[in-house]
Amino acid sequence: MKKIINDPNNVVDEMIEGYVKSYPQHVQLLEENNRAIVAVKKEEKDKVGILIGGGSGHEPAFMGYVGYGMADGVAVGNIFASPSPDPIIEVSKKIDTGQGVVYIYGNYAGDLMNFGMAAEIVELEEDIKVQSIIVKDDVASAPKEEAHKRRGIAGEFFVTKVAGASSEKGYAFDDVVRVTEEMNNNIRTMGVGLTPCALPQTGMPSFELAADEMEIGLGHHGEPGVEKGKLQTADQIVSRLVNDILEDMPLDKGENVAVLVNGLGSTTNMELYIMFRKVEEILTGKGITIHRSYVGDYSTSLEMGGASITIAKLTDELAQLIDFTADCPMFTQI
Amino acid sequence: MGFSVQQFKTFLLNVASMVEEKKEYLCELDRKIGDGDHGVTMSIGWQAIKKELESTLADEEDCAVISSKIGRTFLSAVGSSVGPLYATGFMRGAKVLKESDISQDDTWCNYWIAFIDGVHERGSAEIGDKTMMDALLPAKAQLVSEENKGLSMVEVFELAVESALDGAAKTKDMLSKRGRSSRLGERSIGNQDPGATSVAYVLEEYLKSLKTAVQV
Question: What are A35-57's pLDDT values in tens digits?
């Protein structure tokens, strides 16, 4: 795997350095910790703090989503690894305006322990109110009766969007938690993997798939999925993914949804639009309205090939929050 | 007898070297059931410990301080899931050292028992879940066993390490119930758990250091 890097051990720190230098109007690195990034505010106001975080290698997630209408700060971990409590604690202290902080992160053992430890310390030592929203949108990662074990993947984008919009609109802590949790419960994602990614430190592919194979439900760290099979057409793949989502989260005619067709790193926009075309056809055919759609790289896995589809069921309130303005280095919505 | 500050530091540095040697093998194990970075993660953490031992801790004479500091160093360097687990182990161990005489064998036996209890509590995994605990709990069983009361420290640790390595090997046939690999279901069977493997190696390094200490 060829990569444009320097010392593989420094990729995360050098990426962060480049990122904050690219967007000084938007983000700043905290002096207290070199893995803690916060939004540069145009106006200081009291609001509920939104903190996101997770491993590196998923860019634009997570650090690309710091800015107006999204998150106030991010804790950045090593590649595919949870951040330690330190940056989480520092970001919490920085973004709390006295109204409390909401943590949004994926359902992984490491994240649960590190964010959990951080939340305990922040509440105890800093007297900051913290509520964690744990994203578990990946249908493939556990059956419905064990939904609490599911991992969080691309759907976290919608959760962050709703949390950021509601706090920007001045929602109180409990209301931010309410709508964010509601969005969290109303998202489902299914992915397909085609080609592996390679960690900069090892250069080895994270998994192996033959030239004519695909893997349904592949995790976004290259964790194996639910089944390997022969590579199918875009329409067949989309039908399978959407079908699995709708079996898990049935939608009635007339229902309103947001859709995210997300590339995993090396899959082209061409392919993603070919996929979206089919998603739209299926949903419209069932009388479901697509309120808003997002197509592109929103949560990647280094240079993994493949894509995921997320469907978010919207109430009127959630639709308004999804429509709210966002202005981040890696994501803008007017 | 016990274990001196110098021996403790040497043991930790030996673990750092061992991790570098085994890094690729641990990643290979992890690629089969996880995201392929366990060797990298361990390397990041132990290299940070090495750096700490060679700088701020170079003149530190208190084993309790060393153990607690390296726990926090490891945690800050890696995060991940091994971060909180090892950090909790080292910090719980530090508590024992703080209250006991490091020249006594019992102290170090209790150090490792506290270490293992800490990891156990933080991760709440049990035997058979295909995690670090499959190596650590059998090792602890030897450390607390009444039957081993008459044995020397080295003999007890030989049994503990043997049990840990054996426990790690047994994870090969287990179905993963924790962490990322648990999503694999049946496909996690047939691959040894990287976390159980590396922690058994850590205990093995401790045994080697003990043997060297006895010879001196």
Answer: 999 999 988 899 999 999 999 99
Using CB atoms, pick whichever of B28, B76, B81 lies closest to residue A82: B81
Point out the catalytic residue in the list A26, A148, A220, A221: A221
Q: A80, B35: Cβ pair inside 8 Å?
A: yes
CA distance B102 to B100: 6
Are A206 and B31 inside 8 Å of each other by CB? Answer: yes
Q: What are the φ and ψ backbone dihedral angles of A295, each rounded to 5 degrees?
A: -130, 125
If you measure CA to CA, which chain B residue comes closest to A220?
B35
Q: How many CB atoms lie under 10 A from the CB of residue B199? A: 29
For residue B216, what pLDDT is reported? Answer: 56
What is residue B35's predicted lDDT score, i.e. its pLDDT? Answer: 79
Do A224 and B81 count as a contact with CB atoms less than 8 A apart? no
CB pairs under 8 A between A and B: 104
Contacts of A281 by beta carbon, 8 Å cutoff, 6+ apart: none
Strand partners, A189: A138, A310
Are A222 and B35 within 8 A, CB to CB? Answer: yes
Average pLDDT, chain A: 96
Q: What is the number of other CB atoms lying within 10 angstroms of the CB of residue B6? A: 10
- CA A46 – CA A171 distance, rounded (Å): 11
Cβ proximity of A108 and A151 under 8 Å: yes
User: Which of A35, A189, A202, A209 should we substitute to test contact with B (largest number of B Cβ atoms within 10 Å)?
Assistant: A202
When pLDDT is cut at 50, 70 and 90, the band that residue A296 belongs to is: very high
Residues B40-44, mean pLDDT to the nearest whole number? 95
Sheet holding A256-263, edge to edge: A227-230, A213-216, A187-195, A305-314, A256-263, A289-296
Query: Could you tell me whether strands A256-263 and A305-314 are parallel, antiparallel, or unpaired per DSSP bridges?
Result: antiparallel
> Known catalytic residue: A291?
no
| A58 tagged catalytic | yes
Tokens (6 digits) for A303: 């240079």
Interface residues on B facing A, Cβ-Cβ cutoff 8 A: 24, 27-28, 31, 33-37, 39-41, 43-44, 75-85, 122-123, 178-184, 187
Contact B37 A81 (CB under 8 A): yes
